[in-house]
Amino acid sequence: MARARKRQQRNEQPERPRGKRAPIIELNDVTKVYPGGHMALDRVNLAIGRGEFVFLVGPTGCGKSTLIKMLIRELTATEGSVKIAGRDIGKLSEKKIPQLRRNIGTVFQDFKLLPNRTVYDNVAYALQVIGASRHEIREQVPATLRLVGLSTKLHSYPDQLSGGEQQRVSVARAFVNHPPLLLADEPSGNLDPVTSIGIMQLLYRINKTGTTVLVVTHDREMVDNMQRRVVELYEGRVVRDEVSGGYTEESTTEFGVRMRAEMGVGHNGEGTTTNGHSHEGLL
Amino acid sequence: MSRLVFFFQEAIRALRRNAAPSLAAVVTTVVTVVLLGVLIPVFQTAQGKSDQVRNELNLQVEIYADATKAEVADLRGKLAALPHVQTVEYVSKRKALEELKETLGAKKSEELTSQLSTNPLPASFKITPDDASNLEGLRTAIAPTAADGKAQPISPVVGKVFDRQQSSQKIEQVTSALKIVLTIITALLILASLMLVGNTIRLSIYARRREVEVMRLVGATRWFIRWPFMIEGVVVGFFGGAIAILILWLGKITIVDPLSDTFSFLAAQNSSTLSFPALIAILFGAAVVVSALGSGLTLRRFLKV
């Protein structure tokens, strides 16, 4: 209980009546010009609501990674404003940046695990950073690792794991403190198709717990199959923003079948649901 | 409190997981501290010696044998009033002879005195300047040369004015040059040690820069990342300094102390230079502070994510 209250305080935002809350991600005319003149983003407007599951697609060099880096303030916009939960993060002081990042779980294409820590310690680090108690860590870390299916590898080091397993650790670390927003930058970029599906299922499950998930990918097949909102960037501009055509009943690709099962739709759906933690009122 | 425990655990874990670079840092610290611990006293002794030589330089003002007591007292007053004079010492005829005997040794002085019926040495004033470089100025002040080329001493009872050592000017030049060289070498050595320790730490942190980047991206604050590194630096400095001081102490009791009984040169250093405990305290403190600061400063570059 005390923890919940503490977390509430930590995420304290200006009071806003329920239902009229600002979108969790809001980009207004965001332009990013790199030193040297390359324009990575060109007047991008985008709003993502709470609880959404959104794909961000586009060819290499279209500005996807730039956008993600801007959301965690690794980069700042040249023009326009980037708002997270209604707050302009471009105006955030240096000191507040860690605070922002703690509320955004990030999964990287190259995993970015700490090489000389075990799986357990890697995930625990995200909690130690926010000053969680030892008791909290002992409870949360194994639970999250069970969620991603790695409960048997607690004491392995990253270099003893397969790519898919490392990415699962990365997801677990991003999710362990139950952030309201989870960004995944090419989470399946280095993985084979079957492993990718596993990761996507995991992200989907996380989304079901109430966390907003933004996935960057260039895996067109996967996107088309998931019947989710897709934002397409091309040369720094948003060229498409719609719910994708989705998979059809006839879709027989492995991906379609597996995802259908996961999402509990279609004739062979099993109605899988995860007893996720609720994140209402987190941001 | 639990934070502090966590930071210490992190530091110890890092030291253990990076045993080779940590060991390199400790060894570098040991070598540097030992080097400084040996050379600083040596340089200080050398400086002390050259100072001592300079301080022995003085002027001797001969007094004519027929000078009255009042005239001598008047001269002493005049000499003491001159600028740059530190001490004025009266050397009587008898004392001058004693000093000569002392310099010659028992056997020779026996020969000498046996052939002398009276004491031929004049009484004199021994004048020490405040600094050896003022010796020449003082000489001209006591016996300025008049227009006709003859010396015009400040008092009629003054005979000759001469340096105790003929080559006082040369000694003065050599010692002051030596002093400058020693100061520069000491400064360079300290600078080199700082950079050596700093560089070793840089390398060990550079190897872990990716780790630091990841920590930043997960939302760690700068100090949250920095503290374990600083503690690591303190631990390295502590062990490096402790081992070095053990070595220095062993060296002191086994080599320097027995020798200083036989060589007064070594013994002299105890009075004119830093005492051993002070030297150790400074070196130890420097080792710890330098490695901690080295860690903290090097990290700054990688924290800019």
Q: What does it look like?
A:
Chain A is an alpha/beta fold. Chain A has 9 helices and 10 strands. In chain A, the strands form 2 sheets. Chain A has a 6-stranded mixed β-sheet with strand order 6-7-8-3-9-10, with helices on both faces. In chain A, strands 2-1-4-5 form a 4-stranded antiparallel β-sheet, covered by helices on one side. The longest helix of chain A has 16 residues, at 193-208. The two termini of chain A are 18 Å apart. Chain B has 305 residues and is α+β, with helices and mostly antiparallel strands. Chain B folds into 2 domains: 2-53 and 172-302, no CATH class; 58-164, Alpha-Beta Plaits, CATH 3.30.70.3040. Chain B is 73% helix and 8% strand. Chain B contains 11 helices and 4 strands. Chain B has a 4-stranded antiparallel β-sheet. The longest helix of chain B is centred in the last third of the chain and has 41 residues, at 222-262. The interface between A and B is medium-sized, with 24 and 20 residues.
CATH architecture of the largest domain in chain A: 3-Layer(aba) Sandwich
Beta-strand fraction estimate of chain A? 15-25%
Output the strand order for the largest sheet of chain B.
Answer: 2-3-1-4
| Helix share, percent of chain B | over 70%
Enter the CATH topology name of the largest domain in chain A. Rossmann fold
| Number of self-contained structural domains of chain B | 2
Q: Write down the Rg of chain A.
A: 19 Å
CATH H-level name of the largest domain in chain A... which superfamily? P-loop containing nucleotide triphosphate hydrolases
Helical content of chain A stands at: 25-40%
Query: What is the 3D form of chain B?
Result: elongated
- Helix run count of chain B: 11
Radius of gyration of chain B: 31 Å
